[in-house]
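Section: protein folds

Sequence with per-residue tokens
===
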Amino acid sequence: MEFYSTATPAVDAPIVVRRLPPLIANAMPRFLIAGYQHETNTFAPSLADWAAFTRGDSFPAFLRGPEMVDTLSGVNIPVAGFIEAARHRGWTLLPSCWAGAIPSSYVTRDAFERIAAAMVEDAQAAARSSGGLDGIYLDLHGAAVAEHADDSEGELLGRLRAVVGPDLPIVTSLDLHANVTERMLREADAMVAYRSYPHVDMAATGELAAELMARRLRAGRKQPLAWRRLPFLIPLNAQSTWMQPAKDLYDELAALDREHGTTLSFCMGFPASDFAECAPMVWGHGPTPEATERAVQRLFERAAEPTQWRPDYLDARDAVGRALALAAGAAKPVVIADTQDNPGAGGDSNTTGMLHALLQQGAGQRFPGQVALGLMYDPAAGRAAHAAGVGATIDISLGTAVPTFSGSLSDPPLRGRFKVLALADGRCTLTGPMMTGVSVQLGPSACLEIDGVRIAVVGGKKQLLDRQLLRMVGIQHEQMRIVVVKSSNHFRADFTPHASAVLVAKAAGPMAADPADLPWKKLPASTRTRP
């Protein structure tokens, strides 16, 4: 079976598929499972091409067939939760493919068509097989924008729906940052999103998707659906469920589910995707139209007050100054989030604004060897460190000046003499609450030090969301006074319990902390306003 073709298989009339009557005793329903994970910052500098889905730097490399189940089982991602729930229920799984790439700009036409072609081909084959097909589960992000399809998840759902017809159940899980479209709601039978940011409940969300699939099979029809879209964008730094207002809001979501028998979701949205339906969304599936409408409306009213979503930021210099003052008397490190170069939101993890600010204020001289920054994506620097060896000094230019959303360049590269303190091959298995068990391959990596500041340099792009990524190059977070992380919120799951304070800094970078600063073209003006 050739799956590297960029052509989409022809789809004619829907294939007649086997349908299970509700509650057949001892039946073993058969489900096609697949995944497509990308968060698209349309203002970011780098495209998500096919290589981005096959490198395995931030997500597992592209998987097809039984290897998908073997590799992803037991990992804290949604498909793993669905797989485990299916095993307990005795369901038969037909693995198609799973594709994930680190957030960046548009998914290329070539990459999307390869992924879509594989899923459509496998759906056709499963539907025509002797065992038939009882449903499809998709592990989707929900904020993927392709070069030729603004709503690429809606397009994918539409293509699969054209294969299996209007009655076969299709259930999806979504990232909390999904930009949920009307087409997605229309094409899927049910959807459910994460309820935590950092996303520590990804596998649990896959289990919820399995429960929605079971309900769909028992009922023999879709559950009633209701939805509301918020009329403004929510900055990423205001979305953390470790803080208010999101913390209490998701507690209320769970209480409403218990009260009304619904399965509610609130996607706060990814506020850097320039298309018409980029916005937060509340929706739910429930036992009756009336109960579903009541629950969705109450959650919408709780989320729709705009002023509660205003975050606090510091500029780079002020963030370092505050951190120096706090670190002097703290027993744990002060963590600074370099939010505008977050590779989990479209940055390339290679800007130097925070590094310059640390050096200009003598952070490493005040706390020698106890100030760290990571992850700095610079493959050339990593190769130079490996060529020189541990203990050597290298004269290099570190980092990159990149175009930012404002039209200017970020801070210049740092030219200097660096000492090589440690080397690593970049292979690392995450152990923190976020993406537990996921293995990444970041290429030649090193710990470099300049003026007392230690820098975790890597050859692949990965958000610093797990302390194991620092340990990989010999940096022990617990021994630091100040740690700068190229992340917006995901770092909180593994870093905040071991930090004395957390600050959010706005150094020049490609990911706007305030979405109102972005040069929107397709998003309606009414949605661009600040909360």
